User: Which sequence fits this backbone?
């Protein structure tokens, strides 16, 4: 075709050149092309994070070519034709052209091919089946990928039901791509197929579903996609705990209007009820990481309660007890669940204070408690907690002498 992709910095990076040179040396200049997200995002002027390469070379030939060029070859998915090349510390996923022989919705048996059209025919969406060579020449075997990309149309390659039958993960992927790239009305055939075959997502692994869900929620504005997921019954299967659509919608609106960064985990929390037990169960079901699980659970805990009209002193006390991250998460969720137009300035003030306040360190130690006459043992901790509570109630008083006097008073009042 006549259209071209302007040469991108990642295309001329020495690591990319080394990999493409190795493949060209083994199979000729037409042996490999860029494909998928790197081409799609480059055409849209968006950041490119991963570089995928399609090749006519068999996996064994890819491995041999990389090793001959002194590049690392990792057999990350060799049964499906995928070798990961590592050049200058950068990974490149290289996959041999292939066609599906048999599928069961989760796994596929493939046969390798040298036909670019056959390879395109097994890909998920038409704008993900656009290839580009090193000179930037574009190849669009479906004949519609470029038009879809311009129009923001997420359209399956071929029949949607067939693509979904090959891999049910394409159902949440459809909504994820809608959130990131879709414009206007969604493709009716794709939407109908996702709804009709939605029960297939029950058999997907939790890790794959969680990755798609969090990536969807990280889009600039995923509200329309989430509404469609709810309307088709897909959301109920992927996130059965979801029952706060209004709070989710309000949170995304706040982030968008206030130019806050997109926060996928906080948006997930906004979809859930304010119940830490639900957050814990959801995180475990989706097999989120321990830090993600802890953050989700604490964000959904309603204690201590927060309100937009908290005084600076109350705000500092809450930040001290919760930590700045949890406090800000709680503020965002409570803000989204409130009468936002009337309290925007107040909620923003709470966030600003939490982010700017230098959280102090409690200045007393156990040894100082012992020096005040308290015998070593459990009583030391009890005295420390009593004095710390007084220190917090007095707005973290920065007066060591007053703190020591309070320590003496508490120590004298304790029965040893």
Assistant:
């Amino acid at each position: 075709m006549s259209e071209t992709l302007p040469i991108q910095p990642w295309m001329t990076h020495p690591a990319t050149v080394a990999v493409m040179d190795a493949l060209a040396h083994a199979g000729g200049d037409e042996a490999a092309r860029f494909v998928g997200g790197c081409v799609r995002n480059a055409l849209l002027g968006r950041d490119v994070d991963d570089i995928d390469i399609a090749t006519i070379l068999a996996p064994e030939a890819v491995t041999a070519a990389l090793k001959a060029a002194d590049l690392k070859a990792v057999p990350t998915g060799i049964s499906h034709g995928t070798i990961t090349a590592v050049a200058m510390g950068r990974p490149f996923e290289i996959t041999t052209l292939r066609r599906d022989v048999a599928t069961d919705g989760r796994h596929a048996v493939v046969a390798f091919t040298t036909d670019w059209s056959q390879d395109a025919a097994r890909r998920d969406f038409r704008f993900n089946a656009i290839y580009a060579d090193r000179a930037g020449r574009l190849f669009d075997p479906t004949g519609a990928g470029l038009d879809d990309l311009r129009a923001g149309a997420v359209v399956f390659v071929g029949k949607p039901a067939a693509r979904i039958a090959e891999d049910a993960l394409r159902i949440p992927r459809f909504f994820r791509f809608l959130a990131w790239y879709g414009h206007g009305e969604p493709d009716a055939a794709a939407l109908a197929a996702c709804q009709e075959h939605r029960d297939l997502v029950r058999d997907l692994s939790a890790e794959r579903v969680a990755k798609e869900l969090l990536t969807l929620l990280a889009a600039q504005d995923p509200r329309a996609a989430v509404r469609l997921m709810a309307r088709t019954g897909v959301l109920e299967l992927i996130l059965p705990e979801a029952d706060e659509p209004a709070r989710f919608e309000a949170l995304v609106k706040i982030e968008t209007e206030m130019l806050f960064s997109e926060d996928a985990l906080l948006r997930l929390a906004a979809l859930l009820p304010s119940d830490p037990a639900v957050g814990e169960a959801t995180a475990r079901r989706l097999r989120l990481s321990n830090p993600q699980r802890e953050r989700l659970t604490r964000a959904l805990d309603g204690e201590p309660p927060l309100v937009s009209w908290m005084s600076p002193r109350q705000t500092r006390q809450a930040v001290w007890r919760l930590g700045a991250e949890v406090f800000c998460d709680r503020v965002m969720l409570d803000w989204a669940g409130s009468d936002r137009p009337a309290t925007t300035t107040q909620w923003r003030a709470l966030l600003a204070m939490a982010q700017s306040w230098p959280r102090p360190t409690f200045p007393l130690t156990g040894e100082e408690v012992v020096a005040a006459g308290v015998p070593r043992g459990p009583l030391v901790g009890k005295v420390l907690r009593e004095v710390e509570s007084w220190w917090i109630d007095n707005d973290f008083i920065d007066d060591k002498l007053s703190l020591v006097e309070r320590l003496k008073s508490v120590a004298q009042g304790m029965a040893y």
